Structures are given as C-alpha cells and as structure tokens.
Known about the structure:
2 copies of one chain form a homodimer. Chain A is built from 7 helices and 3 strands, in the order H-H-H-E-E-H-E-H-H-H.
Amino acid sequence: MDVKTLCLGVLSRGDASGYEIKKACEEGPFSHFQDASFGSIYPALAKLSAEKLVDCHQMSQEKRPDKKVYSITPSGRTALFETLLLPPAPDKVNSDFYFMTFFAQLMPTDVLRSILEKRITWYEGVVERMKDCNLAIRPPGERFTHGLGLAHYRAEITYLKENMDQLLDQIASEQSADAEIPQAPKTAAL
Amino acid sequence: MDVKTLCLGVLSRGDASGYEIKKACEEGPFSHFQDASFGSIYPALAKLSAEKLVDCHQMSQEKRPDKKVYSITPSGRTALFETLLLPPAPDKVNSDFYFMTFFAQLMPTDVLRSILEKRITWYEGVVERMKDCNLAIRPPGERFTHGLGLAHYRAEITYLKENMDQLLDQIASEQSADAEIPQAPKTAAL
DNA sequence: AGGGACATGTAATTAGTTACATGATTGT
DNA sequence: ACAATCATGTAACTAATTACATGTCCCT
C-alpha cells in the first residue's frame, strides 16, 4: 500500500507522530505486510496535511525532542474508506529466501543449513511475539489478519522442519554424483 | 532479488530470450516470489552481456520476429553462486489484501466478502496449476520451494475458509452497534 | 566516550514500472 | 477488423531507500 494510505491507516487507530508510524511498520501490527522509511513517511504526512486529510499539533516534551502529533480528519477517514473500496493490487512478494531455496542445489550444504535454521528461528520468534499481544481489545479485522499471519508463519515453520533434512541429504548426494555427470540442459523447461 | 541475478538464475536452468525470462517470472516457476518487467529485463541482459556473464546469439525464426537467445557463461555461473552465498535480504511482502483485511471493520461487508472470495478462488487456481507440474525432473531445491509455496497457499486457503464467515458476522453486528457508540480512541495501542 | 532511543527533515540515488515505438502472425 | 502472442528496446516517470544533517537524553 502506498505510504500516504498507510499513514492514514495507522492514524485511523489513534494519533501518532511520524516516528511512531515508523515503529508501527517496524515492530507493530503492520510489520508483517507493510514497510516504510522516514524518507517516505515525513513527506507523506506533509502532503496529507496540505490536503487536510490529517491535522498536526506540535507537542513539547520534557527530556525528549518536540514532536508533531498527527490526527486523522473526517475527510481523511473518508479517503481511507474510499481506498479500501478499490480492488486491492496483487500481492508483491519479493523473497531472496525463496530464490535461494530454489537454487539450493547450487549452494554448499552448510550455508544452506544455516539459512534454513535462521529462517526457522526468526519465524519462531515472530510467532512467539505474536502470541503475546492482547487481541481481545482489537477490532475483528485486526484479529483476523493477525490469525492469517500466524497461520502462514506456522505453516512455513512446519514445512521447513519436516523437509529441510531431506533437502540437505538430496543435495549432498547429488553433489557427489555431479562429479560424474557435469552436464547442464541446453534449454529451460518451464 | 535484483533483476540481473534473477536473469542469471533463469539462464542457469537453460538458454532463454528476454521475452522467455519475463514469462518465467509471470507464469513460470519464479512467479510466486519474483517479478520483473521488460523495462528492467532488457537493460539487465545488456549489462550482463557487457560484463561477459552471459552470451547472446541472434536467432532468426520463420513466421516469428528474430530473437536474442542468451546463455549463461562460466563467469555468470560463478557470479550466481557468489550471490547465493550472501545472506538473503529480508522478505519484502507488500500486501494490499492484508491491509484491507486489517481494516475489515471499515468496509461494507459485501465488498469485503467479494475480496475474500476472490482471494480464495485465485489461490485455489494457483494450487491446482502447481499440482499439475511435473516435479520428478526438477532439482531438489525447486521441488522444495514448490512444496513451500504450496504449504503457504494451502494454509491461507484453509484459514480464510474457516474464519471468513465469523469475520463477516462480527463486522455486521459491530456496524449495527456503531450507531450507538461512535467513538474512536485518541491514542493508538501498538 | 560511545551507542541507542527519541525526534524531524532534506537531498541524492536507486531501482524499478509504465508508456511509447515498431512490426509480423495467428486466431475470433 | 481487432485482440493476443511473439519479440526488442528506450524514455519518462514514480516511488521508494539511503545517506546526510542536527540535537538531546540515558545507559554502560
């Protein structure tokens, strides 16, 4: 989703500064399917402000730098509703991890094993942190999306655990056989 | 993965033209986790050619335009191996669909239902097409990645089917209750 | 004294997409 | 006649990232 709509989405849940919006995308509830950097968030908030889709009030804090807290306006909410009515763009998954596993047979088994284990550990941590958050207070869409993410991560962990040893074995045996038959096919099979 | 490495990956499986590389990303085995347009593929192939990582030979065809068929060179294979040894960049999932389900309670239930049903139908089609491809002839990494993709899609389909009616019901009842309590929280809960 | 969290913002750069330009052949 | 598939390539554009600039407080 474009950064402007992402900001409107975060602000629809309550007031926030640019810094806090970044955190919501990094660690918060949006971290699993959205991303944005300061270099895109601050200009997006400035534009939303100019379009009167958000209000901004400066906040002086003791022992902390001043911050600008943004609130969504009624027209901002309308803009968010309207975006939600548009057919969603197809998901764009760009995964180096999948690319690597696809070419697993070209990799040394120790590097491959390390990558697979890191992925499992990472996702197990994600699942643990997700289980800890209090969903009771959240609206149904958030709970649903949360459960969908969990289902996805759990399925990936299960598959990786059940199949990684077999993959590693197959590659180890193919790589020793490769010494005898070092031929690549001349035309790609789709 | 950057388009140059993606091209090397496709060419490592056999010779191909720019047009065929595009097809591999659109319909072929890379379609689930990679994307690239002509505007990035053709310049990438030109650069790879200049760096001698691929060879190019013109092919005249009857009743078809000429095509340029690219082959990966030994140094191209080395470059691909080396990229595969680098730690993979974290996955970048940018999903409008997840964003929408997150804000499901802001959407009319009929629009939401239609989006959920389209997603299920789309993924069921993907799974059907994936089941049909002959994996016996493919290397272990490709089989593994294929199974991982299938596991993910099946988990998502299962979750959507098991939870969408409940979500729709919850939203329908909340929306009628909203008429009585029209208050938004003032500060976001992460 | 050095790093990390807090806090905002701009400028340079990158990496891609979309649209355009061209043109034959095949199917409806 | 019109769209789709095959086929390559460039130019304009977009949307983002990264690096830079600035500064405080807190912890080790």
